[in-house]
Amino acid sequence: xxxxxxxxxxxxxxxxxxxxxxxxxxxxxxxxxxxxxxxxxxxxxxxxxxxxxxxxxxxxxxxxxxxxxxxxxxxxxxxxxxxxxxxxxxxxxxxxxxxxxxxxxxxxxxxxxxxxxxxxxxxxxxxxxxxxxxxxxxxxxxxxxxxxxxxxxxxxxxxxxxxxxxxxxxxxxxxxxxxxxxxxxxxxxxxxxxxxxxxxxxxxxxxxxxxxxxxxxxxxxxxxxxxxxxxxxxxxxxxxxxxxxxxxxxxxxxxxxxxxxxxxxxxxxxxxxxxxxxxxxxxxxxxxxxxxxxxxxxxxxxxxxxxxxxxxxxxxxxxxxxxxxxxxxxxxxxxxxxxxxxxxxxxxxxxxxxxxxxxxxxxxxxxxxxxxxxxxxxxxxxxxxxxxxxxxxxxxxxxxxxxxxxxxxxxxxxxxxxxxxxxxxxxxxxxxxxxxxxxx
Length: 440
Prior knowledge:
Mean pLDDT: 80
Order of helices and strands: HHEEEEEHEEEEEEEEEEEEE
Distance between the termini: 24 Å
């Protein structure tokens, strides 16, 4: 497994640097591009501080981000001079390649309309087996004269595997001029052959796993407005469709339908002092959200209500060392269908468990993670935590609390955007996770 880590890290670093270097040498600054998705933290908000300006006019380039210039030979240059110039250009390309490889994490959002990078690499997860994945990640600023506003981000991610999985997702966070509001979004389509244990904790603890294939389409959009200082009010809209194409034993669904469509409308109140959503290094994030799924906007015969609570903290302990903590809870009614039930495991919370290893109406988890910069763009993490799913508060059982712990490597793919390789452990299980952005 250690060899897999090393090969993946070296391959990603080389492909990333080559793609960025080729882009700069060839076409110049892109006028438009696309960004990638991530996890429940993608829909999380970030702080919106007061606006400050650098004093630059529109179109000006900040001195610290001035573009490099290349001196070319004149039309009257001698053959020797031309040869020297050609060698200089070749050296310039080599220098650019290694510069991108070791310094591709610099912030270019002040001198580029869109600072975009690409990566294509082999992938592996227990859920999807071996495959190939691609990522386009971009950072930009609607107002490049504002030195205080955090950069907006956009990502596109795609993956296809030998198991039959194929997924494509787009997500991002767009800060508007004036820094008072932000739009977060995620659009995803996935066809996933998975393992299935049931739809409640008791069944998942006793049933042997079976195979099923799930197809899901989801659109999630959230708009946040800063009321005062770090306090934000948000509105959210969600449309989701899920369908089980085939399943070895339909009895595992306990009589529920094979497919559902839901439309959710949510309101949230958030306090956010984080410095950057994909990779916070300081601040606090607290969120309370209530989402309603009206009966007349879906295919289920009841109106459903979901409540989500999150409390995250980020503290700088020493040079390059960050302690991050996360408390997470999401609660649904007893009649919630399998589509909206909470799944324990995956790539963000309760890492080490197969995604959906335990399923029920509600989930509660906590984790603490130490993130340490090791050398230049390379970092490492260790974490520990616990969590469980349960049918209702009256049936909550502390004996069902499950542990999670693990270690990980980080590669700063772009400025403050990490590719992460984690290996998590749980109760009688362990798993390898490859993803982008921090888990929370």
